[in-house]
Amino acid sequence: xxxxxxxxxxxxxxxxxxxxxxxxxxxxxxxxxxxxxxxxxxxxxxxxxxxxxxxxxxxxxxxxxxxxxxxxxxxxxxxxxxxxxxxxxxxxxxxxxxxxxxxxxxxxxxxxxxxxxxxxxxxxxxxxxxxxxxxxxxxxxxxxxxxxxxxxxxxxxxxxxxxxxxxxxxxxxxxxxxxxxxxxxxxxxxxxxxxxxxxxxxxxxxxxxxxxxx
Length: 214
Hints:
The chain is mainly β. Helix content is 0%, strand content 50%. It has 2 domains: 3-40, no CATH class; 45-208. It starts with a strand and ends in a 6-residue tail after the last strand.
């Protein structure tokens, strides 16, 4: 969404709406296009993860897993895990540790039937935002304790990912866990015990104000 100021079209830094007689910042803006609602702006914080693959042998299993969140939640019937990702590689994701195993090894797939494993090729997220939703019903009762961003591209060179709107939601669509806005739980650089680093070197990880590449 753009507004015209001084005869120039600009993207506004923030939009506000009135709720319970108070003006609040709108974190997401939608417009109706072709009979459906399409997101036109997103001001929620985005994770930025930057890492470098050092190997010269693309046949060696290389990966980078860095902790992004620590906490505790129980999976209940109807819960979903969802996030949006924008990456320079199809082999990038978010992952959760449930103690008994990592989500990438469990029988959970997204709306397109793809696993959450970073080794899965998700071409839809390369250089554009892609929304993934995982039904967690197969693991009801599991307890999540940490989460990570992950890249498993075996080719040498730089790899980047952005992630936003990373939530555990209940069956009513209400947010139970916000992995990026619960800033008190956001972890600084820390190799994830569920993966760590092999042939990758950490460069930077941060939360950005927004990442509007739509």
